[in-house]
Structure formats: structure tokens, C-alpha cells
Write a structure and sequence with these properties.
With about 400 residues, the protein is of the alpha+beta class. The protein contains twelve helices and 13 strands.
Length: about 400
């Protein structure tokens, strides 16, 4: 009896494995690129070809002592970061790097997947392009450059609407299905066709909807307006003046060579700190005004559709215990308590990748590391802010 049962279980297991193999084979035949990239992602490898964003002139970050922040606060920040599986924790205060802590074999050259923190860098580049005359105005229709929108309701969407994530454009909903539009956007080989296919299903400024379609269209807009590769434009206008190391962006495919501009700017923690310092200094790095001060102020001002969002940048103006990204998603950003400093500005990358900037305290905090779905956004800023001057 036992032998027959084991034989039945073995046959059933073989059948299940065969069915799974057939299904995976079908999925691969339908979308080999996405299936291959899912496998690469699971193994911690790049999900597309990398394109270099060249650095040149390093902005030197001065080192200082943490005397102005209590030892207890520093230790609590380190412990929280360690508990959250962090790779790096950097603290900059009063024009000096006062803590540079790496965990579990990571170091100054390590690259962590910082996801959507790229969006804020994209917003900076849009401001520079407007200042240089590459783009006319933040209020002009995006269809001046995305001509596919000229003859439909998308022709009233402005560049500002895209920056504020309130364009009214539809966007793919999260799905585990490898063949879905969501996974074609995230991992497919033609990201431009997916983003340009999205129709307007709301009026601009009606609802805040954080998604990848708006910034992806902005990346395409920048390439068309400038006539340059996005990576080259980013290097020429910004990265070469601030960064210590080359960065990379991820291309959708060798054939289309469009970078994913809603995410995936691969850079060191030190160079992400420099982005925070640039915001803290209102666009100035050393003696160079790289981004107009007025643009940084606009970037960090509340938008009509969301008081806690500016131009592809998060703000802490109003406390929301569970910060909603968009109506289609159940994912939220968790804030266990209000920020002590309501002037906080921050870059939000999926799973707890963060750059926090608190101008009133001269404070910049960088955390990169393992994905943490329960990341509490209030902890690091409040721990360190409360320790200043104590």
C-alpha cells in the first residue's frame, strides 16, 4: 500500500513538473526577453544592457566629526539600518560627511539597486534643459516633442503634469503575469511603445497617480528635444560636475536602446549623497550653480494634486501614516509618526532606498540596501534630527 502511494505521488510530481515546464516554455516562446530578465533579476544580475553616464570633475565632500549629533542618535541610526539589511548609511550635516557606514562587505564602490530615486535626477535634468533652452517651458504641451499625442486628448498634457504625476495618463497595473503590459514596461525590449500606447483616461491635475509612464515619457522627451542620448545629456549637464564615479542606466534592448528613466540609475552611495547635497544647496555645488535655484524651489513645492509631491520628488508637508502611491496599487509608504521637520525632501526608491534632505538642519541622509517592504520613512530622519545639538 505504501509503495503504491509513493508511486502515485511520484507520478503526480512528474506531471506537475511537466506542466510547469510546458507553461514556462510557452511563456518563453511568447516573450523570451522578459522571461530571461526575470531569471537575471532573481540572480541579482542586470536586466538589460548598461549605458555609461560619465563622471569627470569630482565634487570633494569634506569629512567632519559627528559631535553635533548625539552619540545615542548615531548609534540608533546605525542599528536601525543594520536591522533593515542596509548596504550603506551616510550622514552629512553642516557641510561635512560625519558618518559613512557600510554593512556586510559593501564599500564606497558598491552599487545598490536604488530603483525610483532616479526620478528626482530626471526632474533636475528637465530643469537644466529648460534653463538651457532645450525645452521651452514647463507649461508647454508635452506633445510639442511627443508628436504621437498631437491629435488626441493627450495634447493638453503639459511637461509640468508629467513631472507632478498628474497627467491623467493610464498606466499598467502591477501583475505577476510575465506577458502583461506591466512586465513589458519593467523588463520588455520596447519601453517606448508601451509608454506611448497609454491613453489619457483622466483630465490633467485631477488625481495624483505615481507611476513609471510619466517619467519614462519625460526621458523620451529629453532625448527628442536635445537630439542626444539621455546618458550623454545627463553626463554633460550634471553628472560630470558632481560625481566621483561613472553611473549607468539600463537600456530596454540593443535594438531600441531606450533607457528606463523611471528607475535604475546605478550609482554609489557617495554619489547619491551628492544629489542630496545639490538639493540642500538649492542647485549649487561648490561655486557652480548647476541647477537654477528657482527650479529647485519649484521641484520641492507642493503640487496641486498632492501636497507631499513636487516634481518627481517627495515632500513631508502633511503626515500620512500610509502614503498612497496610486489608486491601482495597494502598496503604501509607511510613516509611523509625523516628521519632526516639515521641510523634509526625499528621494523614494522601492523597498527603502532613500535620500533624505532636511534644509533647516543642514542634514542629508542616504540609505541603500536590501529591499524592505515594511520600511518606516519616519525613523532615520527623526532619530537624527532629534539628536542635533544634543
Amino acid at each position: 500500500m505504501l509503495f503504491k502511494l509513493l508511486k502515485f505521488i511520484l507520478k503526480a510530481l512528474v506531471c506537475v513538473i511537466a506542466l510547469i515546464s510546458v507553461y514556462l516554455g510557452y511563456l518563453y516562446s511568447q516573450s523570451p526577453t522578459v522571461m530571461s530578465r526575470i531569471a537575471s533579476m532573481m540572480m541579482g544580475e542586470a536586466t538589460g544592457e548598461l549605458e555609461i553616464v560619465e563622471a569627470n570633475e569630482t565634487f570633494v565632500i569634506d569629512s567632519g566629526s559627528p559631535d553635533n549629533i548625539s552619540k545615542k542618535s548615531i548609534e540608533a541610526a546605525i542599528q536601525f539600518s543594520a536591522d533593515m539589511g542596509s548596504h550603506a548609511l551616510l550622514i552629512y550635516q553642516d557641510d561635512a560627511l560625519i558618518l559613512e557606514k557600510y554593512f556586510d562587505g559593501y564599500d564606497t564602490q558598491s552599487i545598490s539597486d536604488t530603483q525610483s530615486m532616479h526620478k528626482t535626477v530626471l526632474a533636475m535634468l528637465v530643469g537644466i534643459a529648460i534653463d538651457d533652452g532645450i525645452i521651452g517651458s514647463v507649461d508647454e504641451p508635452a506633445s510639442n516633442y511627443l508628436t504621437e499625442w498631437k491629435n488626441d486628448s493627450r495634447n493638453i498634457i503639459t511637461i509640468k503634469n508629467l513631472l507632478q504625476q498628474s497627467s491623467g495618463l493610464d498606466y499598467p497595473e502591477f501583475s505577476f503575469n510575465p506577458l502583461s503590459d506591466f512586465n513589458q514596461l519593467m523588463l520588455g525590449e520596447d519601453v517606448t511603445s508601451i509608454t506611448l500606447e497609454q491613453k489619457a483616461y483622466r483630465k490633467p491635475n485631477e488625481v495624483f497617480e505615481y507611476n513609471g509612464v510619466n517619467p519614462q515619457n519625460l526621458g523620451l522627451l529629453l532625448q527628442r528635444a536635445s537630439g542626444k542620448r539621455y546618458a550623454d545629456l545627463l553626463s554633460e549637464k550634471l553628472w560630470q560636475y558632481i560625481a566621483e564615479n561613472d553611473a549607468t542606466v539600463i537600456l530596454d534592448s540593443e535594438r531600441n536602446r531606450m533607457p528606463r528613466t523611471y528607475c535604475c540609475l546605478n550609482a554609489t552611495a557617495r554619489d547619491w549623497l551628492r544629489i542630496g547635497i545639490l538639493i540642500l544647496n538649492e542647485g549649487k555645488m561648490g561655486q557652480k550653480q548647476l541647477i537654477p535655484k528657482s527650479w529647485v524651489n519649484d521641484m520641492t513645492a507642493s503640487s496641486q494634486a498632492n501636497p507631499n509631491y513636487g516634481y518627481l520628488t517627495w515632500l513631508g508637508n502633511e503626515h500620512q501614516k500610509n502614503r498612497v502611491y496610486n489608486p491601482k496599487s495597494s502598496a503604501t509608504g509607511h510613516h509611523s509618526e509625523p516628521y519632526d521637520d516639515r521641510d523634509i525632501i526625499y528621494l523614494d526608491g522601492f523597498g527603502g532606498q532613500r535620500v533624505y534632505v532636511i534644509p533647516s538642519k543642514g542634514l542629508v541622509i542616504v540609505r541603500t540596501g536590501a529591499t524592505q517592504m515594511e520600511w518606516d520613512d519616519s525613523v532615520l530622519p527623526n532619530i537624527l534630527s532629534r539628536g542635533i545639538g544634543k
